[in-house]
Every structure is written in structure tokens, then in C-alpha cells.
Amino acid sequence: MSSTKLPNPLGSRALAERSYHREIRSRLDQVYEEVLPPWYPFRGEGRGIYAPIVDVAVGPFAIETRYETRYSEILAQTRDFIENLIENHNANVEDAEERARFDRVAAFNMNARCLLCIEVEDTGSRKHCLGDLVNASALGRIGLLIARTDAVLRTFIRQRAYLAYLRSVDKNTFRTDNALVLTEKQFNDCLAEMKRR
Hints:
This protein is of the alpha/beta class. Helix content is 43%, strand content 13%.
């Protein structure tokens, strides 16, 4: 497979990265109260800590307070959208064990820093993609990895499967059960079908 851009239903030309982040925010703002592109989840934590920058995040943002119950309420209110994301993710994965279910995804990362942690990738190295996967899963109740190319989609899927394989053979690993991998087109279609608040 080539590393070509996947179709983009938001317009005939591919949107530049920051423009696309703003478009995502505009769509998510119709349903969620707090949406930030970009988001700095560890701003103010000091220079001695790695501080990722998240492409787009949906709050509330759990910096000093935990929001387990509130996140569960919001996920229940937007279940159709989340189920649509899960359905598209499941279409991308080969192994039945890699398939996601709403109840498992929604209850996985109870101590998340945000509701949805969205990383959009089109040119990153495999190491960069792995960082996106870990950050999205660790920071979000649900992590969304949006692949803008076929190559990045394959990378995300393989990395997620690799981490699951390590777990299956009792190796040290990082669990990414709450990380959903979608193409840009799939994500855009989900956004277009999302019900307004």
C-alpha cells in the first residue's frame, strides 16, 4: 500500500494540520462543552517531567480534580457517537481480541485527565506514532488515533496489536484497550453524524 492521503469529506483539499484541528473542535463544540486544540495536560508541572502536547482534547480536564462519574455521564449522553467510533475502529482491526466494546472502553481509564484525547497523525515516525498511542490511551478516558495516511493507519493498528500480544504472553506492556484507531474519513463521517447538544 502506498502512503497516500485518505479521502477527506470535509473538503476536496487536505486541510493543514492546525486547520484540521480547528475543524475538529468546531464539530465537537456542537456536542461537548469543553474542547481544546491543542491541550497541554502537564503545563505548570515543572521542567523535570515529559510534557506532551495533545492535538485536540475534550474535557472536563482533570488536573486537580478527578471526574470519573462525570466522564461516565457524558459518555452515556453521547453513546451513539462513541458507538459509531467503536464500530469504525472495529472495522480496522483484524483480530477479534482487538475489537472494542462500549462498556469495556468506557470503563477502562477511570483516572483520565480528559474525556477524549485525540491525536491526528500523517507523517510521524513509528516512534512518534507509539508516543501518540501511549499518550492518547493514558490521558483520555477514550483515546482517538486519527490516521491521515494508509501507512499511519497500519502503524497504529500494528502497534496496538503488538502491545496486546506482549500482554498475552505475560510480558511487561502498556494496555491500550481504550485507544480507538480510525482513518480521517471515518472520523469525519462520525463527526458529521454526531447529534448536537
